[in-house]
Amino acid sequence: xxQVGFPLLSLLTFLPLVGVVVIMSxxxxxxxxxxxxxxxALWTSLIVFxxxxxxxxDFDRGYAGFQxxxxxxWLPQYGVxxxxxxxxxxxxxxxxxxxxxxxxILSSWNNPARVREYMIAFLxxxxxxIGLFSALDFILFFVFFEAVLIPMFIIIGIWGGERRLYAxxxxxxxxxxxxMFMLLxxxxxxxxxGTTSIPAMMHIPLPPHLQFWLFLAFLAAFAVKIPIWxxxxxxxxxxxxxxxxxxxxxxxxxxNMGGYGFLRFSVPLLxxxxxxxxxxxxxxxxxxxxxxxxxxxxQRDLLKLVAYSSIGHMAIAVIGIFTFTVQGIxxxxxxxxxxxxxxxxxxxxxxxxxxxxxxQSMDAFGGxxxxxxxxxxxxxxxxxxxxxLPGTAGFIGEILVxxxxxxxxxxxxxLTGTTLILSAVYMLVAYRRVVYGVIARPELRGLKDLxxxxxxxxxxxVVLTIWMGIYPSSFSTFFDATVTAMAKNHALAMSGGGxxxxxxxxxxxxxxxxxxxxxx
Amino acid sequence: xxxxxxxxxxxAGSLISGLFGRWLGDRGAQAVSVILMLxxxxxxxxxxxxxxxxxVPDGYVFVGDWLHVGGFQADWSLRYDSLSAVMVMMVTxxxxxxxxxxxxxxxGDRSVPRFFAYLSLFTFAMLMLVTANDLLxxxxxxxxxxxxxxxxxxxxxxxxxANDAAIKAFIMNRIGDLGFALGIALVFFLFGSIRxxxxxxxxxxxxxxxxxxxxxxxxxxxxxxxLLFIGAMGKSAQLGLHPWLAxxxxxxxPVSALIHAATMVTAGVFLMVRMSPLLEYAPVALAVVxxxxxxxxxxxxxxxxxxxxxxxxxxxxxxxxxGYMFVAVSVGAYQASIFHLIMHAFFKALLxxxxxxxxxxxxxxxxxxxMGGLARLIPYTYVMMWIGGLALxxxxxxxxxxxxxxxxxxxxxxxxxxxxxxxxxxxxxxxAFYTWRLIFMTFHGPRRGDAHVMxxxxxxxxxxxxxxxxxxIGAVFGGGLLDHxxxxxxxxxxxxxxxxxxxxxxxxxxxxHVPLFIxxxxxxxxxxxxxxxxxxxxxxxxxxxLLAARFGFIYRLLIHKYYVDELYGAIFVRPYHxxxxxxWHVGDEDIIDGxxxxxxxxxxxxxxxxxxxxxxxxAQYAFVxxxxxxxxxxxxLIFR
Lengths: 520, 640
Hints:
The structure holds two protein chains of two kinds.
Chain A: H1 8-25, H2 30-58, E1 67-75, E2 80-86, H3 88-107, H4 115-134, H5 138-147, H6 149-159, H7 164-193, H8 198-201, H9 208-225, H10 233-241, H11 244-269, H12 271-297, H13 302-321, H14 326-357, H15 368-371, H16 373-387, H17 393-408, H18 410-435, H19 452-470, H20 473-495, H21 500-518
Antiparallel strand pairs in A: 1-2
Helix pairs in contact in A: 1-2, 1-4, 2-3, 2-4, 3-4, 3-11, 3-14, 3-19, 3-20, 4-5, 4-6, 4-11, 5-7, 6-7, 7-9, 7-10, 9-11, 9-12, 10-13, 11-12, 11-13, 11-14, 12-13, 12-18, 13-14, 13-17, 13-18, 14-16, 14-17, 14-19, 14-20, 16-18, 16-19, 17-18, 17-19, 20-21
Chain B: H1 2-19, H2 21-52, E1 59-69, E2 72-80, H3 82-105, H4 112-130, H5 135-153, H6 160-191, H7 196-202, E3 210-213, E4 216-219, H8 220-235, H9 243-247, H10 253-262, H11 267-274, H12 276-279, H13 283-304, H14 310-330, H15 334-361, H16 379-393, H17 399-413, H18 418-443, H19 451-455, H20 462-486, H21 491-495, H22 507-510, H23 516-539, H24 543-550, H25 552-559, H26 564-592, H27 594-606, H28 618-639
Antiparallel strand pairs in B: 1-2, 3-4
Helix pairs in contact in B: 1-2, 1-4, 2-3, 2-4, 3-4, 3-10, 3-15, 3-20, 4-5, 5-6, 6-8, 8-11, 8-13, 10-15, 11-15, 13-14, 13-18, 14-15, 14-17, 14-18, 15-16, 15-17, 15-20, 16-18, 16-20, 17-18, 17-20, 17-23, 18-23, 24-25
């Protein structure tokens, strides 16, 4: 059925639930349960990660379509099936999900309250994330898309900070409002196409006016996830209140769901609408880059600062997608992946300080480097990743998006490029306030440098940051073929002037490739 | 392959002394990084000589893939042609000398291993820059040296002023880098490649390309040239993006010598020379380069005349000398530009390191008003300062004479060179003046220093004096020895096609025939400058105060560096902060959050207290979903 001979993606998706069952079955006093829950969660997520490496090894990199496909009948009379598979784009997101989950679990090792439920929430979260990125059926995708909200809602609402309920409900309402529009869109597509299989939908052309409304409906759902300005304020509150591990997944994976949605649905299924509304997306993206990068400068709360920087970085990814150039789309992918682990790492860095001082305000720090030189070094690597220094992962996405954007419009490229300056402004100022200077506060004199657990969660991210910075080809070989095909198909659809016949023939070409892949 | 050793040995030194410095100790880290720098210098010089003598042909060492996306391809590779060989030799040699000097200068500092790790890392980044085979690797080195410059300016991170200066340097560089990045993107857009060889081969074909911008069809190569020059302006501290360089003097003095005089700040000039085959077809861009370069040469020199911090005087001098190099670029005398770059590296590093020795002797004092009369106390340093000064002022037969003369002569002949020529002549006079002002204020006259400090004035240890001697040899003999190869009759064979002079191939031969007065003018002006300084600071020490009182406006303008910092503060920094607060409080908190909040209030009011969103219970969650479902189905039915 696929190159590994067994349903690997389903295994990855549902393996965390096995961990959940194990955790639930543990009995004993609270300390024993908590300890068992921690280790079970960590081992489960590590095993899932190791299995997910099979994807890395066995993926056919020259091939643009879907691989590791599995299909089971679900509601065949309605054209709905349980269909899984990854292409070069989604495989990366599956991998980042499986890689970040163990790190998130490690980061909340000393979480005091209700450890068992906490770990269960994270494992359920992992299931929904992997499922979402491997779903090849729109209904299945939507199920995971919605299901991911529940554990995150609970994580923020129960283990969050002081205003956790406000943040959790805001998070939920924004997400849910967006999803409703998407559900409408899905239903409309279903009635039009008679199927919800994504590979099949790719070769059914849609009339432009339907594309237009569908685009807006999808935009609502994906824009709040990314989030796109001006739908971003929930994110600031969510990051401020969520436990650090929640922020790690929120920034590392949930934000990417929106970008993934654009790449999976908006661009291939709705080429005309995407093309016509690209100026809107550029405008929103450019405004977000500048707006959030400026706002980040005056934040005193480190979590809010990182949250603002996260929005600005994701906006660059959005701009990249809608250039429809190979450079722009690949830049956008690099941007999303690097944002995934660099922003996650920044949250972890802030978390390290919060663990020690119970404070997340910049003003409470200064001179940290005197006591924590290793921390200062790792933090510097991530800060430079955020700033987009060449040699770090952050740069690759940035320069590719700029190159892609310049093919479309000089001003889009210029305004996107302001992130080079603006991100340096807020990041260096924040770093200086926290890390440099003399130790002014007596309570900072007793700070201890990173411990073993913290090194174990941060060093892999440092390695990733630099690896993707100096050898990005090892990642782009996975999505090169897929993205090239996507850009080519988009160009073909556009040159066809949107006429149905042309659309159909080009979409057919895509799907033949895709089907051939399924037969692998 | 030995070329690769020269480039990667500093990286190894940096990683070893940086990551294992805690276990190696100060001496161990110094030893590792200095030995690896010596290795780098040895291989750098050997491979450079082999190339320049024609033993090995031009080419490049392929190290690995970097980025291949569509046609946008960049590799890790080390290009060696005459231009990069010359730069590699200069960088490795000067860097090694400064590493050795730093052993003495940084003695007793808290974090010696970190310092050496940064210095070596800087050297590696600089070598990656000069050996780049495509624009993106050049950008990698470019930003890499920017990072290390930031780290080293802020090396003493306890000082707020050092942190401010570091951030300022990084951000000002980044403004230029935005131009550079857009330039790279536009090069790719036009040429479909960012490899130098591919670009240069295609320049003629693209000469008629236009790029639509500002509602006009502009000459595309000119647009590229100007974008790249904006990058060069940031890195080489040219007018407008210059204020960071003087503040960068907050870093330790060896850093100022290596990064902010000899190597990093010349990267902008190197970029221009590297892109010479393209710039030759970008006349407007070259004109802009000439105007900015010439203006900077005079502008910075005038500021240098009024500063009292010994390092800041030299920093403004660097700024001004970089202007000279850009003038040479603008008239097509790229060879003269690189010639001056190399000579400048030697004598400016010498000046900075001697200034470092003075500061070392004065227990950290940098204000020249508190010095004076040091000549007898530290005679070795005094002599070195004279050598550096003579070379800088372009007094024959020192090295600065040859390189500066070539630039001035070329600017006389160069197209549209009239303005630049006047600028550099004027700057020559000012250069000699502020240099001797520095020497007289520091070494002559009454001892104005604190008695306690003056009692401790001492000559530096041999590890600091040795490198000075080597640099002094370069500053004295370098020009005379290399003149023939860099700009003389041997230049064509020497550069071997690595520099393009399509437009005006004869500019270097014609500078040998300039009118006599142009030939002598720089020397005369230099001597006049020295004489003026002598009168003002030796014969009539009351004169400067008189002049300052008489021409108060000009004096204040100069001492405040034309109020550029204040201007930027008023038009950029403060409005930016105000905007940031407005965005955060008004934009996000009031407007964007206000809409859903208002909506929620409305919903709560209309639902008569049924919906209590704050409760957060699962029942409420289900209820919200239910409402959603109702809305959905009704919408669905309506549209059916």
